[in-house]
Task: inverse folding
């Protein structure tokens, strides 16, 4: 409740009292003043209601903005964590592939004859499979 809300309600009640008193006394001027006060009090009261509604909406909007920022930070932190994890796994796979490649190259170097025979057999097989058929 704000000042306009409170004052508008009081002015409206004073206007009703003034209108009733003017009617009892038979004074049209007092009735008119009372009706005017009632109308302005109702308008001021409605203005106070609108101010409260706008304030509530603003606070709700601020809350939503802050919640959005918090969620963005959480998503951002999570995405950075996932990116770091992906980089780490990629480095592990690369290191593992390098180790296996070196081991394979060492075995091939130790067994040159067998390696040469295997490579020749694979080349012959691939050539035979890739030949045009009639």
Result:
């Amino acid at each position: 409740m704000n000042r306009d809300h409170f004052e508008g309600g009081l002015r409206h009640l004073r206007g009703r009292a003034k209108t009733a008193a003017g009617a009892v006394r038979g004074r049209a001027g007092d009735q008119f003043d009372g009706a005017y006060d009632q109308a302005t009090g109702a308008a001021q009261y409605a203005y106070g209601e609108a101010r409260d509604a706008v304030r509530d909406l603003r606070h709700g909007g601020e809350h939503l903005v802050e919640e959005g920022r918090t969620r963005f930070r959480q998503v951002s932190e999570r995405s950075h964590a996932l990116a770091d994890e992906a980089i780490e796994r990629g480095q592990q796979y690369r290191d593992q592939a390098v180790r296996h490649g070196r081991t394979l190259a060492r075995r091939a170097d130790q067994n040159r004859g067998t390696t040469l025979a295997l490579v020749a057999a694979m080349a012959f097989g691939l050539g035979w499979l890739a030949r045009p058929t009639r």
User: Anything to note?
Assistant: The chain has one domain: 3-130. Residues 3-130 form one domain. The chain is about 95% helix and 0% strand. The chain has a mean pLDDT of 88.
